[in-house]
Every structure is written in structure tokens, then in C-alpha cells.
Amino acid sequence: MRIFQEELVRCRRKQVFPLSKPRTTAFDVETTYAEVVRDKKNRAKKYHGPDSQLYSAIYPLFCIMKVFGLAPYDFRGDEIVPSKACLLFSFAFMVLYCHIMYRVYIRFISVKRKKAFLNVVETTKVTINYFVAMYELVATIFRRKALSQVWNAQQDLDERLSQLGYPRKETKTEIAMWTLLISQIVVWTAVNQSGMYAFGETWLFNVSYMCIYIGTAISVYKFIGMASFLGQRFHQLNRIAKENLPPSVGYKSSTVSRQVE
């Protein structure tokens, strides 16, 4: 027994270290929250690819345009490029518009109006909208490369301005997008219901009849959107130039003017 006691005394006791250092201070919720907020603000914002601020703001409208064949584009890396797969939507809607016009003409021929003038006006209106919708699809197919170059150049500008300390915020763009989308859904739903009630049409025929008008409206909104995006960036460049022009130009509120004064 004494032998075992001597052996136990001779062996050193191993020191057990804790797995983690003990917390010396209490957990501060406010400090942790402030650090999280600061890290979120300092996080780099993306200006390219599907995660960019502008694309994220208009993503629902972009999907609708793609379905109507007016946005045959896809992302390759961080750049938007023409997509051959999305061209199927463009060709599909060209065929659909032709079928709709055939059905509409058959319907107009079978309907006898009291005044022939009204029949001519209605037929002319539908025909013009048909040619406008077809022209937009054809123009989209042949000019998709040019528009993708404009989009990518626009994203490059946003990134460079952000590096210079002038980041863009697309909050207003997102609000405008949702306002436009919701208002158009309400308007076209009201038009659909009133047309069905007034002319005794089925839902399918009325929707197919409106499809050409909706496609034309989407193409107009597409043009307005691209023009407004470019206008916003020119306005931002103009504001940056005013803030950094020398006082001799006449802008007393510029940054350079305040530094000189």
C-alpha cells in the first residue's frame, strides 16, 4: 500500500485548462448591437450582378418583362448578357399575338354594329397596337446587345462613384417600382372586369384581347425606366460637379469654395 502512495505522490498532477477564457465582463446588448450595425454599414455594397442594388429594386418588373419577351437577358458572372434561351419568350409572344389578332378579327367580323364607323375605329386601334407590340419584340431581339452594354456601363458608373465616396441608394427606385406594379395590377383588373361586364365577353377572350395592350404598355415602361435610370445618374454627376467646382465658376456652396473661403 505504501508503494502505491509513493507512486501517486511522485506523479505530477495534470493541470486542466478551461476550454474558453472566463468572461470577465457582463454581456452588453447595446454594444453588441452597435457593432453589428457598424459592420452592416461598412459592408461593401454590390453594384454588379443579380445581387446589385438596382437589379434587386426592379427584380419583379424585370421578371414580368422577361415573360413578355421584352427582356431576353441573363447574368454571366457579374455582367448582364443577351440570352438565347430567353428569346423563346419573345418568339412565343410573337406567335401568341398573331393568334390573338386572328381571334379578334374573327370576333369583329361576326359582331354587327349599328354604326360601321365604330367597327373601323376598333379594328384600326387593335391593328396599330398589334404592330407596335410586334415592332417592340423585333427591336428587342435585334438590339438586346446594345441595351446590355448600356446596363453594364451604368453599373460600372455606380461602382466607381461609390469608390469615390458617392454611393447610390435605390430606395426610391424600389418604392416607385412597387407603386407602379400595384397600380397597374389594379388598373388592368378593373379594365378586365368592366370589359367582361360591358361586352359580355369571357375572361379568357378579354385577357387575350388585353394582352397586346399590356405588352405595349410594358415596352413603354421599359423605355421610361431606362431613360429615368440614366437621368438619375446624370443628375448625380451634375450634383457632384457642383459640389467640387472652383469658386470662380459661381457655385459658392461647393466644397472647394468653402475650402478656399
Q: What this model shows, in words?
A:
It is a single chain. With 261 residues, this protein is mainly alpha-helical. It has one domain (50-243). Helix content is 71%, strand content 3%. It has 10 helices and 2 strands, in the order ααααββαααααα. It has helices at 2-10, 29-42, 53-57, 59-67, 87-110, 116-142, 144-163, 171-199, 203-244, 255-260, and strands at residues 73-76, 79-82. It has a two-stranded antiparallel ribbon. β1 and β2 (79-82) form a beta hairpin. α5 packs antiparallel against α6 (116-142), α5 (87-110) crosses α9 and α8 (171-199) packs antiparallel against α9. It is elongated, with a radius of gyration of 32 Å. The chain starts with a helix and ends with a helix. It comes from Eufriesea mexicana. It is a multi-pass membrane protein. This is Gustatory receptor. The chain crosses the membrane at residues 54-73, 85-105, 175-191, 203-224.
Topology:
Elements: H1 2-10, H2 29-42, H3 53-57, H4 59-67, E1 73-76, E2 79-82, H5 87-110, H6 116-142, H7 144-163, H8 171-199, H9 203-244, H10 255-260
Antiparallel strand pairs: 1-2
Protein name: Gustatory receptor
Keywords: Cell membrane, Membrane, Transmembrane, Transmembrane helix
Pfam family, one: 7tm_7
List its salient traits.
261 residues, mainly alpha, two-stranded antiparallel sheet, 71% helix
